[in-house]
Amino acid sequence: MKFVIAGAGAVGAYMGAAMARAGLDVTLFARGPQLRAIMERGVRVLGPDGDFEARPKATGDLQSIGPADVVFLAVKAHSLPQLAPRLGCLLGPETCVVSLQNGVPWWFTPLERVDPGGAIARAIEPRRVVGALVYFATEMAEPGVVRHIEGRRLSIGEPDGARSARCRAIAEALIASGLRCPITTHIREEIWVKILGNVAFNPISALTGATLARMTADADVAALARTIMTEAECVAARLGMKLPVSIDQRMAGAAKVGEHKTSMLQDLEAGRPLELEAVVGAVLELGERLNVAMPATRAVYACTKLRAAVQAGLTGDVQNAQRRA
Predict the structure, then answer these.
(1) For this structure, is 242 an active site residue?
(2) What pLDDT digit, counting tens, does each position of 198-246 carry?
(3) Among 194, 242, 261, 305, the one annotated catalytic
(4) Using alpha carbons only, how large is the chain's radius of gyration in Å?
(5) What is the pTM (predicted TM-score) of this model?
(6) 240 Cβ partners below 8 Å, 6+ apart?
(7) Beta strand spans in 114-254 (E)
(8) Which domains does the chain have, with CATH numbers?
(9) How many CB atoms lie under 10 A from the CB of residue 305?
């Protein structure tokens, strides 16, 4: 099978390195310093079970790759509306597309904050989509170097809950790469379980700079997180979903991850745009549609949105000063 990973950040580069080490045909689509580093030195993974290096193929030109069997979308959610229309060159008659984004995915239900104007849905036919959830924690130490903090699980499933041969084939490839890849027939419910944590901890971490361990250990912040999770759980109930994991279990799971910075905090510190709309704004959009009051979520969302705007201004001021110097 031929695999393409569109996006070589912490998640994509880690997966690409693991798959290349297993001898799979995998190509990373990357840009800038990350692309140069991977092309020159490959990917180095620093992990709790030992370090390793691999040399996956890498390119900045999608046209040069050709049709693939499986395309993993590993870019941030806010980058998908621009990327999706460019993916046609990768899509053969049976190509499937596995979405790895945090938050509410574009295929879950039409949402303007996730897929403005329906650009992603027009570019990727529903029949191609395989849902996925990333549970491992990674971060970029420097271009070409991924720090693997914990976990190896990536769950996949058909959006309609069916069992399929293509999911089995993808799971077998990822398992051969050293990852855990259970196939779920309840991908929508599992996505919402992850949203419970992300909608609370991601924006709070961006506001406070705290790790998961610090947030769950702080009584006041933990209470706020529980309130936000409760609001998101009410949205899930209005959508007709019964979640298999309680808020207590979700809190305990976050605490277990330890001193890990959420992806939103990592993006803020690196001066990158935040996945705020897919992770929080989309849940609020659904809440508005379903008449669910979400005051705690809305307050944290508003503050995080302003925090990101202020950070972007500061980053721009620094960059302008550096250019003048």
Answers:
(1) no
(2) 999 999 999 999 999 999 999 999 999 999 999 999 999 999 999 999 9
(3) 194
(4) 19
(5) 0.89
(6) none
(7) 129-134, 137-142, 145-150, 154-157
(8) 2-185 (3.40.50.720), 188-317 (1.10.1040.10)
(9) 17
